[in-house]
Amino acid sequence: MMDSYFRGTMWMLLVLFTLPHLNCVEVCPNSCMCNFLGAVKCVGYTITDIPKQLPVNTYLLQLNGTNMNVIHQQSLAEMNLLLRFSLTHSHLHTIHPRAFQVAPQLKSVKLSSNDLSTLPAQVFSPLRTLDQLHLDGNKLETIAPDMFEGLVGLLDLDLSRNKLNNPPSDVFDGLTNLNFLNLGRNLIRKLQPTIFHSLTKLVYLFIYNNELEVLETGIFDGLVNLEELKLHQNHITSLPPQVFWSLRNLKVLTLSSNRLKAIPEKSFYNMPKIRKLTIYNNPLLSLPDQLMGHMPDIKEFYLYATNLTTVPGNLFSNMSGLLTLNFHLNDWLYELPSDLFCCLPKLYKLSLKANKLVYLHPQLFSRLTTLDILLLADNKLQSLPEEIFRGLGELVLINLSNNKLKTVPGNIFSSNTVLKSVFLSGNPWNCTCTIRGIAKWIRHNEHVVSDRDGVLCHSPAKHLHHTIGSLSDEELNHCNTTYKSYYIHNVLHEPTTTPPTTTSITTQEATQQTTIQTSTPTTKPPVLPTTGLSTSLKTFTTKPPNSPPFYDMLVIEQGPEFVHHVVHKDWVYVWTLPSDTALVGLLMVCHILLVVTGLFLIFAAMYGMYCLNKTTDGLKAECAHILG
Ligand SMILES: *[C@@H]1O[C@H](CO)[C@@H](O)[C@H](O)[C@H]1NC(C)=O
Ligand SMILES: *[C@@H]1O[C@H](CO)[C@@H](O)[C@H](O)[C@H]1NC(C)=O
Ligand SMILES: *[C@@H]1O[C@H](CO)[C@@H](O)[C@H](O)[C@H]1NC(C)=O
Ligand SMILES: *[C@@H]1O[C@H](CO)[C@@H](O)[C@H](O)[C@H]1NC(C)=O
Ligand SMILES: *[C@@H]1O[C@H](CO)[C@@H](O)[C@H](O)[C@H]1NC(C)=O
Ligand SMILES: *[C@@H]1O[C@H](CO)[C@@H](O)[C@H](O)[C@H]1NC(C)=O
């Protein structure tokens, strides 16, 4: 009796364990792959409905690339163990209104990449335990407000890549457990202010690639668990103040590629966990003095393709974790505050390339002691202060290519002891005595100047296209000027390629009249400046604030002979007379003229005397003749 009982049990176990397995192998339909755990995958255009005779233990059924355009009322019938169903890339256009009533146990339905343009009313509502619903990649334009009613267990809802434009304000009400919501790549223009208010457990909210123009005040209120909010590639023109303030767990926020011209003060406060924040590719005109809250976890920040002309000095001061700062390709950025990089103790890469920088404050980089890579290429730099790279003991690479440098101080790299690569090409190097110092450095550090064959003289004519490294000290002919006076001289006499749109500069034949605005750094220039003289003068003279005003320093060797200035309504008007070379030339000509005139007069007098003498002789002879 015991024995037969035991034997029976054995048989049962054997049947239980082997049958499904055998079934799988034997029953798996054509075009499908089945595994013994109950996962079935079917592919191909021969499939027009759910294959019959699937293994009885099928819990996962994936149909991809099929010809099944309709889910019929009975398509999913008699599959009581099926939990996860997907029908993708299949031109599905119709779902029977009661298609899911026969399979209320489903936990996952994925209908991605089909042709659905409408959904029957409440078609998913029988699925009380549904946790995943993917409808992405269809042609849905609208969604009925009650479409997701009753799906309280839903965790993951993907509606991306449709044609939605104005989802109803209560469409997500009741989805209190939702974790992931993707509305990206639709045509959404407007989102109602309360649309997300039930979604208190939401962690990921993607609204990128839409046509949103505004964000309503309070739209993200209550999303205290949100970690990723993606809003990039929309048409957002403005943000309401404090719109992100509820999002204290936010780690990723993307606002790039919108139409923001400004960002409200303190917008990024209360985001202590933020790791990724993007605001690049917006036509930003200015940023507020207080913008970034404490964000120690941020590692990378991109601020490019904006219309910023400058930024507040404390912009990065709370982003203390930054390793990489890519602040480049800003077409209007010509000036940086001296303390901008004050508080970035971990920064190792700073890219400022392809901005319009004209001037760098001597202390700008002084605190970036961990910096490895500094990219300054493709700017408008005309000169560099001697101490600009001082203290950057870990600097390995500096790129100064394609600027307007005519020379740089000879000891500019003296404290960059581990420097491996310097790029200096594409600058109009002036191969006169002014370049002697840096030329010597280049000769001694040839291996460091990575593009040394492109570091060419641009003037004077006799050295045109020679590499700096090939010129000896003797060839750099002697002219006794100090670098500083050279600098001022050149800044003042730099010809402007495009005259500024303001009337700040007028150049006349004999005299130069230069107008310099000595505004405080906070007031913005009236018109976005073009590159050139006005900018360099302004930055040179008004920054740093404690340095003496420029006109105290202006009378210098090699400089203009006479300088006059008048201060009027915050503007300083400066007149200069022609520089000494022209004056000396004029004097020389006068001198020669005088000498020639003198000689002429002397000769004329002598000739007169001679004539007089001759006449008197003649008279004398005539008298003698008459008398005689
Ligand atoms: C489904 O099919 C499409 C093309 O028909 C293919 O691109 C895609 O990778 C397939 N997906 C899966 C999960 O097999
Ligand atoms: C830095 O963050 C703190 C805390 O959020 C804030 O009080 C401070 O004003 C911020 N600084 C700047 C310059 O925004
Ligand atoms: C930003 O600059 C671009 C060119 O650099 C210009 O076309 C655009 O009009 C500017 N936008 C604003 C708002 O100034
Ligand atoms: C330096 O800048 C020039 C000009 O933009 C560029 O061609 C070159 O690749 C840059 N080199 C490095 C190492 O960044
Ligand atoms: C080059 O430097 C010399 C000496 O300072 C100066 O006289 C000359 O004008 C400069 N040339 C150019 C093109 O700047
Ligand atoms: C250059 O000028 C300085 C004073 O400006 C003078 O002390 C120095 O001796 C001069 N050097 C030469 C080589 O003439």
Concise description?
With 628 residues, the chain is α/β, with parallel strands linked by helices. The chain has helices spanning 2-27, 436-444, 483-493, 533-542, 580-627; strands at residues 32-34, 39-43, 60-64, 70-71, 84-88, 94-95, 108-110, 132-134, 156-158, 180-182, 204-206, 228-230, 252-254, 276-278, 300-302, 324-326, 349-351, 373-375, 397-399, 421-423, 429-430, 457-459, 505-507, 512-517, 563-568, 571-576. It has an 18-stranded mixed β-sheet, with no helix packed on it. A four-stranded antiparallel β-sheet has the order 23-24-26-25, covered by helices on one side. A two-stranded parallel sheet has the order 4-6.
Question: What can you tell me about this protein's structure?
Answer:
By secondary structure, the protein is of the alpha/beta class. Among the domains are: 1-115, Ribonuclease Inhibitor (Leucine-rich repeat, LRR (right-handed beta-alpha superhelix)), CATH 3.80.10; 360-480, Leucine-rich repeat, LRR (right-handed beta-alpha superhelix) (Alpha-Beta Horseshoe); 483-577, no CATH class; 581-608. The protein has 5 helices and 26 strands. It has helices at 2-27, 436-444, 483-493, 533-542, 580-627; strands spanning 32-34, 39-43, 60-64, 70-71, 84-88, 94-95, 108-110, 132-134, 156-158, 180-182, 204-206, 228-230, 252-254, 276-278, 300-302, 324-326, 349-351, 373-375, 397-399, 421-423, 429-430, 457-459, 505-507, 512-517, 563-568, 571-576. The protein has an 18-stranded mixed β-sheet, with no helix packed on it. Strands 23-24-26-25 form a 4-stranded antiparallel β-sheet, covered by helices on one side. A two-stranded parallel sheet has the order 4-6. A hairpin with a 2-residue loop joins β25 and β26. The longest helix is centred in the last third of the chain and has 48 residues, at 580-627. Mean pLDDT is 85; it is low at 20-25 and 481-562. The chain binds 2-acetamido-2-deoxy-beta-D-glucopyranose (NAG) (6 copies). Residues 375, 377-378, 399, 401-402, 423 line the site of one 2-acetamido-2-deoxy-beta-D-glucopyranose.
